[in-house]
Design goal:
heterodimer, A: 315 residues, mainly alpha, 0% strand, B: 537 residues, alpha+beta, 11-stranded mixed beta sheet, 4-stranded antiparallel beta sheet, 16 helices, 22% strand, globular
Chain lengths: 315, 537
């Protein structure tokens, strides 16, 4: 319990750090909302520029802007989008489910495919299978997922004349159509991630299978399945869970581009557009949400350790 | 459309070059024979049919739907079906009456009187009157609105409501471009009086357009429904339209092939692939965007016109067109090729073929024998064609001994540097920027703001005492032939002086399902003629 409280305090501090960092970073980006509004063709006078800056509150000193932002965030107010004048909180909340669904289903698919394949690769005697896993793993690691995404679109539309309905439908409205819409994006994200998990599972399992206690379990006459799943896998899972947790960070990054390619109205694309348009409140809000997700995932991973391995205790 | 007539149309389209009867396009085909994309004219022979919803892929997400405060072309693509102005454009890019039925000029071109069309309904059922026109244009002119396009209407000094259907505008000086400024629809949409104070126009819209807004979900889709009380009955034919935002070209092409959308804007590569797909037709017409490089003429060595011209002479325009647009473009001078009769015939443009010897001589004359200086070419990967252009130029000027660095910048950074050049009078920001001038409602728009002393977009303070009176005269006289010969002279002088390097006008390439009938492309690059489109079964 003490550990949890301490962790939560640290999380708060980390998020405060992130907030300061992102606040400074978006302001260090060259150009601001006015440059984007006017483009290379607009003809705004100096006084018009100042007028717009003032209307967005951008003429105040940075510390004041930052303090106001953090203060209102603590009250659940993420500010208003420069672009649409709508509350950022509402926008992000409406975009969050898509991204969460995308990430959750990807992790589920990765686990369902990656774990068994990794285990299989660790116990198989077939040299071909081992090489195949190595190659797939290497490809999955080295091909960027936006490229996979484009290839998937080409294959689906050119070869099969198939693409799902384009206007996004949330799962609670029509789960079947939603799943079709999510299919290609999930696949494009999962391929790379699954490769990591397969390789990690394989090496982790190989290490554990060489341990004394596995030999003891075998010597006791336990069935090979019981040895594999109850004794070996459970211990092998710790580094795998760690990697999966860390990969969540990369996944959130992948989501940004994947959503744009497939036209999914999620948090990632919102963030990307926010950066393009220098919509500071949207960028800040979206990054904070990503940071919160990441920090919470890490906490969950750490707590999972104690369940997986009772020897791990937090003081 | 049956097979035979399609082929016939194809042949005709190719013979005409642009397929839209643009004189420049014809010449262009002779210059650029390698582009194999096909052209099909929208068939207008069959009887239009009412009903159906068009699903289209949009390449950009509209930044906002406010018809007055955004310069972003994406915004115009969002609101162009919702709002209308006093005048508009037809298929041939001629100015036609829209909300104004007719107009009169008096007082030497300084007074415009517009007679409004009676019984025009807004989407909320309200009838449009002169008060609404005054309110809308006053909003654009109000500095507080900070409309980036206010300069198009700057000449208007006063707007007077004569009666509910008559508006009088008094100008500070004669300005023949005003009718085009209204038709241009960058900041000229007519909204009901007081609307901006009541609604968030960035996401809501009430106009007089053929379609009304149903739903705008940024980064997902925008849905329109037929405006049942539209003044120009029986238009529009479609019951509604949905634009799904798909920034990725491959995704748009895929959606078209899979039958998920019936309209998409594509590029030349996509056109070649789609031209052979049954059930899909490819439309191709020139679009009034001149792709060019701005030069900051404030500092050495680019303050010398001989240097600018010499570098320009080293570059092969055709190579630029091949590498930047895969051949789907025509060379252009300052006023885009195909723009009425204002532009210079591409065949007569100087230095379209590289002249290395001439360039070397000119450089030596300017005091740089063998080059020996460094320049920076800025561009943004947001527009890959501009990066390609910069690379071709870099390669070409190497032959003159000039070391050109290509600097790729994220769009926001690029725009900022652009503005820095103007703000600092060319002292900071950069030397050369690859960019484009999109459609302007009058030839003046491509010339005056850039090259007259004190112009809003005069990079590095270009000034030419010989051009000043010509430019001023050309924007204030109404005699077409006189104006035309002035613009020819101005353009020739500018090409000699090379304060910009004008490269080409690209083709606007769109693909639709064969079921989409009656749609014609517009030289403006806008899609307002979708109001005439209909779906065959």
């Amino acid at each position: 319990m003490r550990y949890l409280v301490r962790r939560l305090l640290w999380m708060g501090a980390a998020l405060l750090g992130v907030s300061a960092l992102i606040f400074i970073l978006v302001r260090l980006l060259p150009g601001n909302i006015i440059d984007i509004i006017a483009g290379t063709e607009g003809q705004l006078s100096r006084s018009q520029r100042l007028e717009i800056l003032h209307s967005f509150g951008l003429d105040r000193p940075w510390p004041v802007q930052y303090a106001l932002w953090v203060w209102s965030m603590l009250h659940g107010n993420f500010g208003w989008s420069f672009r649409t004048s709508q509350p950022v909180a509402g926008l992000l909340v409406s975009r969050l489910p898509t991204t969460v669904e995308l990430a959750a289903l990807t992790v589920a698919l990765v686990t369902l495919v990656g774990l068994p394949l990794g285990i299989l690769a660790s116990i198989t005697r077939s040299a071909r299978l081992k090489v195949a896993v190595q190659i797939v793993g290497l490809l999955g690691l080295s091909i960027p997922n936006f490229w996979i995404a484009i290839v998937l679109i080409i294959v689906a539309s050119f070869a099969f004349h198939w693409l799902p309905a384009l206007i996004f439908v949330p799962p609670w409205q029509d789960p079947w159509i939603n799943l079709q819409q999510m299919f290609l994006p999930i696949l494009s994200l999962a391929l790379g991630l699954a490769a990591v998990v397969v390789r990690m599972t394989r090496s982790s399992m190989l290490e554990v299978l060489g341990q004394e206690y596995v030999k003891v379990a075998r010597a006791k006459g336990l069935g090979s399945r019981a040895v594999l799943l109850r004794h070996a896998l459970r211990n092998a899972l710790i580094p795998i869970v760690t990697v999966l947790g860390l990969q969540m960070g990369f996944l959130l990054g992948g989501v940004v581009i994947t959503e744009q390619i497939f036209g999914l109205p999620g948090l990632g694309w919102t963030l990307l557009n926010g950066v393009y348009q220098r919509d500071y409140p949207v960028v800040q809000g979206a990054v904070m949400l990503f940071a919160i997700t990441f920090v919470v995932t890490n906490l969950i991973v750490d707590l999972l350790y104690t369940t997986l391995d009772p020897r791990i205790r937090y003081e | 459309m049956n097979r035979v007539s399609r082929r016939k149309l194809l042949a005709r389209g190719l013979a005409l070059g642009g397929g839209l009867g643009l004189g420049g396009a014809e010449a262009a085909q002779l210059l650029i024979p390698s582009w194999r994309g096909q052209t099909v004219e929208a068939a207008t022979t069959a009887q239009p049919k009412r009903g159906g919803t068009l699903v289209a892929a949009a390449e950009v997400d509209p930044v906002s739907l406010d018809p007055h405060t955004n310069s972003n072309f994406s915004a115009a693509q969002g609101f162009e079906h919702l709002y209308e102005s006093l005048t508009g454009y037809n298929e041939k890019n001629q100015i036609v009456p829209m909300l104004a039925q007719k107009w009169e000029l008096s007082n030497g071109g300084k007074t415009y009187i517009f007679h409004l069309r009676p019984n025009v309904k807004f989407h909320n059922g309200q009838t449009m009157t002169a008060e609404d026109v005054k309110y809308s244009i006053d909003r654009v002119l109000d500095p507080k609105t900070a409309s980036p396009w206010r300069s198009w209407f700057n000449a208007i000094e006063e707007i007077k409501v004569i009666d509910p259907l008559t508006v009088q505008m008094n100008l500070s000086a004669p300005y023949p471009g005003l009718l085009g400024s209204f038709a241009g629809m960058r900041a000229s949409g007519i909204v009901p009086k007081g609307l901006a104070e009541r609604e968030n126009l960035k996401i809501k819209a009430i106009g007089t357009g053929p379609f009304k807004l149903v739903e705008f979900v940024p980064q997902d889709h925008i849905t329109y429904a037929r405006h049942p009380d539209y003044w120009d009955q029986p238009l529009p034919y479609l019951d509604g339209m949905t634009f799904k935002v798909l920034p990725e070209m491959t995704a748009r092409e895929g959606a078209l092939r899979a039958g998920q959308v019936q309209y998409a804007s594509i590029n030349a590569q996509g056109a070649e692939q789609l031209a052979r797909v049954p059930g899909i037709k490819v439309l191709k017409g020139l679009i009034a965007t001149v792709t060019l490089q701005y030069i900051n003429v404030a500092a050495k060595p680019l303050n010398d016109s001989r240097v600018r011209k010499a570098l320009r002479m080293a570059v092969d325009t055709n190579e630029i067109i091949q590498k930047a647009e895969f051949g789907a473009a025509v060379p252009s001078g300052p006023i885009p090729t195909g723009y009425g009769d204002w532009y210079l015939d591409p065949k007569t443009l100087p230095y379209t073929k590289p002249d290395i010897e001439g360039a070397k001589k000119l450089l030596a004359e300017a005091g740089y024998p063998g080059g020996g200086f460094k320049i920076e070419l800025k561009c943004s990967p947001q527009y890959p064609q501009l990066v390609a252009i910069s690379l071709v130029v870099q390669d070409a000027v190497k032959k003159l001994g000039v070391d050109a660095q290509v600097v790729q910048q994220e769009w926001g950074a690029f725009v900022k540097d652009n503005d820095t050049v103007i703000r600092t009078g060319g002292k900071e920001g950069g030397e050369i920027f690859a960019s484009g001038n999109t459609f302007r409602p009058d030839p003046d728009g491509y010339i005056y703001p850039y090259f007259h002393v004190g112009g809003e977009r005069n990079y590095g303070g270009y000034s030419n005492p010989k051009l000043e009176p010509l430019m001023r005269q050309a924007r204030t006289i109404f005699n077409h032939d006189q104006r035309r010969s002035l613009y020819v002279e101005i353009q020739r002088t500018l090409l000699e002086e090379s304060p910009n390097w004008w490269w080409y006008v690209a083709y606007n390439i769109e693909a639709t399902s064969e079921k989409v009938q009656g749609y014609a492309q517009s030289f403006t690059g806008r899609r307002f003629l979708l109001k005439k489109a209909w779906l065959s079964s």
